[in-house]
Amino acid sequence: MEEDGPAARALPVPHIVSPAVVRTRGRFAGRSPSILASSRDRFDSLTNDGDQGHGPQRSIEGWTILVSGVKEDVEEGDLHDVFSEFGRVKDLHLNLERRTGYAKGYALIEYESFEEAQAAIRAMNGSQLLTKTVYVDWAFSRGPIKNVTSTRPPRPRSRPPPRRLAALTPY
Questions:
Q1: Cβ count within 10 A of residue 149
Q2: Where is the region Disordered (predicted)?
Q3: Topology at the third CATH level for domain 56-140
Q4: Domain coordinates in residue numbering, the chain
């Protein structure tokens, strides 16, 4: 029996180039470094107007500073009163712990101009705020990330207990 029509025609079999199955792991496995380098040009990036140095970076809406070491029972009004002496506070964000309602220990304060934010950093960094020392610095900065090292020595580790010999155990 011969059938004429589309069912009679055989579908082409795909040609296998290599019988060995090549398995790779990772996102960029098997790609050459030149391809990876050229793909970086396709991504958007922020321009620094030719300034590649270190220093503060402006956020989208203004100049943001980070105040750390804030006392738990501080309120937004207290921070606003202190930091408004250096210029108009455009935005103030004080994160609160959900369970307790107390501050988490840091605040983000945004100023309109660089000079206002710089004055706040110079005046308040290392000063006392409600009997606690606060540290003030830029929230965003250009350049490489600083390697933060602790001033504390590492904790001493205790020795493990002595091992029991298998021959001495009663079971």
A1: 6
A2: 146-171
A3: Alpha-Beta Plaits (3.30.70)
A4: 56-140
